[in-house]
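As a warm-up, study this chain.
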Amino acid sequence: LRNESKWPNIVKWLREMEKRPSYGATKSDVYTHSRALPPQIGGECTFSPDNEFITTKNSVDAYCLPTSVKPDFEDLSWREPGWETEGKLHRREAAERILHNRENILKFASRAAGKPGFPVAAATLADPMALGNDSARVAIDVFLRYTIHGLLQTGIRNKIGTSEDSLNEAAKALVKGGDGTALAIVDCLDYLRQRVGVPRDMSYPAAQQLRAELLHISTTIESESKALESSQVR
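Now compare it with the structure written out below.
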């Protein structure tokens, strides 16, 4: 639909619609649609390897894959057309959404370390009957705080003495509790990242910033876990 050479008037119409705040407040993203719609129509979507949309699918899914799966940089760089460019305001929006609903988010994310619900829900990412794991909530809280700090502190990742050093130390401390503990928290962060919905939770630009920050945090924990495992082998 956004092919200007084929559908110039439709493209103009979309652009004008997207300027309206009332429309923007209800606008979803492809990732949310692709997860919410299939259960409603009775099944999951499948793609053949030679499907022309497989590249777009990989880009849409990039920030929502498990931490152990490393997507291509090009896929991570892709942004859905029709949205404003991400900036500080969107990072603040994502941070505010976590702070606003912190207790419920901790309970929700801890489901990955708890028990799955019964009966199983029709939607792959839905599990309303799942039981959280209270013992995981403290660690999740710690790394959500690093997530918020990362969202609010742009452009200083590589400076010595910043929160990045503190994040690495926190990840090392978590890993000392055992590889299973560290990977369980990674699973909890992944669980949350894969379920950020647009516009239910926040706007698409804010969601992409949050997804990216959560991926960075969980990747750091996983890297420290692998480094400890490697040192023990040696």
